[in-house]
Amino acid sequence: MRILLAEDDFVTRKFMMNFLSSYGECDAAVDGMEAVDAYLMALEDGEPYDLACLDIMMPVMDGYQVLRSIRDLEADHGISEEEQVKVIMTTALNDEENVKMAFDLGCSVYSGKPINKEKFDQALKKLGLI
Q1: Distance set, CA 53 to CA 11, 49, 63, 78, 86 (Å)
Q2: pLDDT tens digits along 32-73
């Protein structure tokens, strides 16, 4: 599995990289723009990501902007909904408004912080990634 992690907090990024690396190749971006650039490069190289984990509160571009950009890039490249990257929003923002906005933009799963490994595993299974 190819995984893109967009997380600006060093401690959380390190934790998530260690956790996700057991599932496959994991690339990290420290801000939203870097995440979009990494996603586009992977797409153009013919090696798209299977999973993107996006923090919402990041510098340059927030997770919502990244998600919108990813879905726009997929549409521009003719990628069907079934073939789209699975997106898990990983955030401390757990209110109804943020959750709704994430799903409206096309996220697959919304995972609150701190990350619960067992629940995250269940989400990956539900998405058919493991």
Answers
A1: 15, 11, 9, 22, 9
A2: 999 999 999 999 999 999 999 999 999 999 999 999 999 999
Beta-carbon contacts of 125 under 8 Å, excluding residues fewer than 6 positions away, are none
Helices (H), the chain: 10-20, 32-44, 63-76, 96-105, 117-126
- What is d(CA 79, CA 36) in angstroms, rounded to the nearest whole number? 16
Taking CA atoms, 33 is separated from 37, 59, 70, 71, 129, in Å, by 6, 8, 11, 14, 25
96-125 pLDDT per residue, tens: 998 999 999 999 999 989 999 999 999 999
What SS3 state is found at 112?
Answer: strand
